[in-house]
Description:
Blueprint (H helix, E strand, L loop, with lengths): L2 H14 L5 E5 L5 E2 L7 H6 L1 E8 L2 E8 L2 E10 L11 E6 L5 E7 L6 E5 L5 E5 L9 E3 L4 E2 L5 E9 L8 E10 L5 E10 L2 H9 L1
Antiparallel strand pairs: 1-6, 2-3, 3-4, 4-5, 6-7, 7-8, 8-9, 10-12, 11-12, 12-13, 13-14
Amino acid sequence: MKKAAVVLIIIAITLVLSGCPQTTSKSSDSTDNTNDKTIDDSQIKNKAVVYFKRVGGNWILYKLQGKDSKATGLKVKAKKNPSSEDDEQIYSAVSPDGKQIAYLQKPAWPHTINLANIDGSSDEELVGPAKPTPTHAVYENSLQWSEDGKSVIYSVTWNNCGEDGEGSIDTILNKIDVDSKKSEELNREENSCEEDQVRSILSG
């Protein structure tokens, strides 16, 4: 989406809390391929890595421990966006206790964030499409958990610019409680709708 806004959000998340491991996987022309797994030091120390792998029309969650890689039981149907030429990707973050995973598919539309058990026993929508104008709102790629494992941190960028150039492009950092589904705004960055500013945000 808008690279500059994403950078601001990543900085904001870093200041708010220390997150847990995230994984990003991307599909390719092959129906059985794994790309772009992001592994951080905490996963290496625990000698276990959780990652999504595209198999046919589904994303399958795997756990790599030592030399053994096994499916955890979670299977997610891949969502496509016929109007986009971007590669399909899935962004995710594992809970501190390693039992749950929050994930977001792109360029599937409208964007939603789901919460699932690692073993596949549960998979439900945690954050629905942004309201009231989902065509003007994009969930950013960064997902993180609170240290206590009770909340998921996510961000959404709103294009509130009118045809007259008035309004703003707002990037909002939110925290949602995984049990109550109650959302709280943590931070907001507002950018001008002036042509030069919009071009800068879009180009990064």
